[in-house]
Amino acid sequence: MKLSVSVRAAACVVALCWLAAGCGDSATVPSADTGPVEASVDASNEPLRACETPGEPCAAHTTCAINPVCGQDKLCHPSSYQNCDDGLDCTEDICLGQGKCDNKPADGSCVLPVREAQGTTTVLKCFKKDDRSTERACLVCDPDRDKKAWTPANGGPCDDGNACTKDDYCDNGTCRGTDYRAQCDDNISCTDDVCDGKGGCLGNQLRSDACLISGTCYKDGDPDATGCNRCDVSKSQSQWTALSLHCLIGNKCYAPGEKDATGCAECDPTKNASGWTPLPNVCQIDGKCYQPGDKNSGGCAECDPTVSGTTWTVKGTTSCFIDDKCYMPGDKDATGCAECLPTTSTTQWTPINNTCLIAGKCEQANAVHPAGCAKCDPAQSTTAWTNTDPNLCLVNDKCENKQTSVFACGACGAQCGAGETCNAGACVCGTTTGTVGGGSVCGPGMGCENGACTNCTSTNVARSATASSSGGGVTAYGPDSFNDGFDQAAVCASSTIRFGWVSGSSTALGNWIALEWTTPQKIGRIFIDTVDAQNTCGSSIGRRLARGRIQYWANGVWADVPGGNVSAPGDWNVTFTPVTTTRLRIMDTQPESTSNPVIFEWEAYCQ
């Protein structure tokens, strides 16, 4: 409040605290009693109140007076003045006497504690209605409820400090948000599932002290079931690290010098850490150990380590050693189509002249197939029937006309694609009413769809296929994501996991991804959208698909697509001579590092 001149000039002699704080605003100083104020003044030029008995306590002219005593001039002199000014512009400061003060916040204001910049002490400051605390966003000045304490806020933005919540708001002084961590959780305990705080995911990062091997988490230093390998994050976080000077054989760990069950081989990790190392000058054959010169049960072969330490060696040309059995010259095999002829081979059956061994049966030269359009012609082939009619082909034990059959249209071994028929030795698209094989021959870059030639690039036929893999990603990361129509751009835009991965490493072969259709498809181009080098949308660095061989299913076996070998990391766009098939796969899929390769989308087109 506003004090008289003498009060403002007086020294503060009373230490003040919160709830009995200082003064110094604009109110009038109340008088100590109702007696008159004399004209005499003290040293501060403030009028003093008259008194009767010098040396006795008296009634001072202000409640801010301390220890007032009647002077010889019969004026009431305080020994000092109480200072109630708290230094805040928003309070009404009132002296209550006896060393007490009252500091009332003005209407519409709060006096609230805040930490100083160093964070070690608390000071009081003025705030207006609805002002928020800088330390806690969910505390507010509400003078209607409490002028001297922060009021819990309801509503309004805040940050709960949890990146996996969104739409944070104040709820009775507490900041709350909607938890969406399950959307980013890959259900792998050793990865950190990173959220962006806005409802999106930033990825699943493998922790630095863990290995993720075949989908299972291990701590740094953990052994595998054999005890011969360790999780060593300094070497690899995706593969076991083998202990030095040990052998891991058949999922069991052996020390150097330990022998196998035959006694013919030992653990020598300097030569082979994953298999037995044969001892010198012995033969290990069929699980048994033999010394040089030991003969087999038939007597036609012997142990000769200088030739082979794992198989019998045939000496001379007087007999045959075939399938671990001895035969004399002229002995025939089970089919009767081959014989033991040591002068030609001592380890394999020699085909008998003028015969054909077809489907496990021996046929004599010129024997005619029951269908009538092929015969055994050893001069052409000793393992398959030779077609004899220039207009017919033997397909699946049936004679097919080259002019009309979709199974041999134009040439033996040819086959028409889906929706095509055979007319005059050419595969044509669709049929015309009443005329088998009617329609048009689809030109380059065209395919047959719904009875009409269409542009090959118009349809991604991979969408109608069933995707599979040799193993790796499952559920949200499974093969179904290979051809669901969501490429990397779509996945990033939706913040939804829609990519697959397949087990692989930088060296291991044999892993594959495949598409299969219920009807034959003509395919001449594929596109694979793999993860980019910046590991966008939840993957990790080093998982771009970098190598593989494109193969198609033909006549019951897998065949390589000419020009279908890829050996560079990044998206694939491979064009090749179109093939008609029901299956397509990429064999020996490998990433650019030792991780598992990621595929966002696999597309297939006619051309």
Proportion of beta-strand residues: 35-45%
Largest sheet entry = 7 strands, antiparallel
By DSSP (H or I, 4+ residues per run), the number of helices equals 3
Q: Give start-end ranges of low-pLDDT stretches.
A: 1-44, 432-437
Radius of gyration, CA atoms, in whole angstroms = 48 Å
Q: What's the overall geometry?
A: elongated
Distance between the termini: 91 Å
> Average pLDDT across residues?
82
Q: Could you tell me the number of beta strands?
A: 47
Structural class: mainly beta
Helical content class = under 10%
Description:
The chain contains 3 helices and 47 strands. The strands form 21 sheets. Strands 41, 42, 43, 44, 45, 46 and 47 form a 7-stranded antiparallel sheet that branches. A two-stranded antiparallel ribbon has the order 1-2. 33% of the residues are buried.
